Amino acid sequence: MRGSIIGMKFRIYRLTGIIAITLIAMLTGLRLPHPAAAQVIQPNPRVEQKLLDELQANGSADFVIEMAEQADLSAAYAISDWNERGQYVVDTLKATADRSQKGVRGQLERQGARYTAYFASNVVVVRGGSQRALEAVANLPEVARVRAPIMVRLEPVQSKILQPFRLTLPQASIQGVTDWGITDTGAPSFWSTFERQGEGIIVANIDSGVKYNHPALAQSYRCVAGNADDSRCWFNANPGVNCPIGVPCDDNGHGTHTMGTMVGNDDSVLTDNVGMAPSAQWIACRAFRGTEDAPDAALNACAEWILAPASNPANRPHVVNNSWGITGHNEWFRPIVRAWLAAGIFPVFSAGNSGSNSTCGNIGSPADYPEGLTVTAHDTLGQIAWFSSKGPNFYGEISFVKPNLSAPGVSIRSAYVN
């Protein structure tokens, strides 16, 4: 996948994502459930058939309850104060979720189910839920639908990063060389004309994490002068053995690479200048663990953290990059994108890597949402990369332009960590 930041976000490797979720709730009923083979589960128009099939086969399943009501955030656009605007959005989202989820939570608690509620998307996620738990909530009037989890996958990136370098770039580079992608965008001209390189801007990514002490990124980390694990700057929503709770880390390399393209330092002691906005600061949320699929619980958690790092909307970033997605159209993440926009956060999405030289109309979600900026990749000749997903996009009979722009995305140098 590719993305762009502060106008443009690029990538060197191809990523095909399948966005999102592994979730929570376990039923402890007063009666033992029937064996899976003995259950007869009737179709329900509000319940995704995939979920019913899993319940039929296994007797329990993870599921996501989507509430019908979504918060009206339109008033946020008239608020000029940054802190006030962010707080209004978070308060409104939480009030809507608390009100609309009350009945669902009560029913799940009576069934002994374990669940996690999210305010930004207004969903409740259940892990190991039983048929009884599903039936208790599926027909409540405040429930829009109940669906199976969605999973997002990051491809292994090492071979996709190193192979293009071996083919097209020398093993050693001249000190202080500016990557072709930076020059292609006209960034150096912008820097000199406006004497700005991102000062005062905070950028974020939701990715596999970031190696905070990478030489190209250490000085631009927002919490470099404080505790590295400060929750204002870092949240690990999917910790693992090689990237536990603690300081910012990355056991994949993908997140470090995308952050390097955004804000990689242009210090002359480094061999390459790779960042579009080297004077901006960065924060990050980790949703992906190694090469494993990411649960949409982790993506929901990251999305809410982006709105209010350390539970304070004043800490939110100005831009958030998302180099992941799923094939096909799915609205599951759209309420979050709208919440980010209402809070003044600019969302950027990779168009995806489901393309071919002759195939169009294959941009997945969330990149196909009208609200976000969608970026595809081009090469050194200005040609759209053969692997990049392409438009057009449709909502019903209405078509709209996607991707919004292309940016350098082939053989791009950036920060990386093994």
What order do the strands of the largest sheet run in, or round the barrel if closed? 8-10-7-12-13-14-17
Question: Structural class of the helices, strands and pairings?
Answer: alpha/beta
Shape: globular
The end-to-end distance, rounded to whole angstroms, is: 19 Å
**Helix content class:** 10-25%
Q: Radius of gyration, rounded?
A: 22 Å
Please supply descriptive tags for the structure shown above.
418 residues, alpha/beta, 7-stranded parallel beta sheet, 4-stranded antiparallel beta sheet, 9 helices, disordered N terminus
Commentary on this structure:
- This protein has 418 residues and is an alpha/beta fold.
- It contains nine helices and 17 strands.
- It has helices spanning 49-58, 82-110, 131-138, 158-168, 180-185, 187-194, 254-263, 296-307, 334-342, and strands at residues 60-67, 115-118, 123-130, 143-147, 151-153, 177-178, 202-207, 234-236, 272-273, 281-286, 293-295, 319-322, 346-350, 373-378, 393-395, 398-400, 405-408.
- The chain has a seven-stranded parallel β-sheet with strand order 8-10-7-12-13-14-17, with helices on both faces. It has a four-stranded antiparallel β-sheet with strand order 2-3-1-4, with helices on both faces. A two-stranded antiparallel ribbon has the order 5-11.
- Strand 2 and strand 3 form a beta hairpin.
- It is globular and about 65 Å long.
- Mean pLDDT is 83; it is low at 1-39 and 155-175.
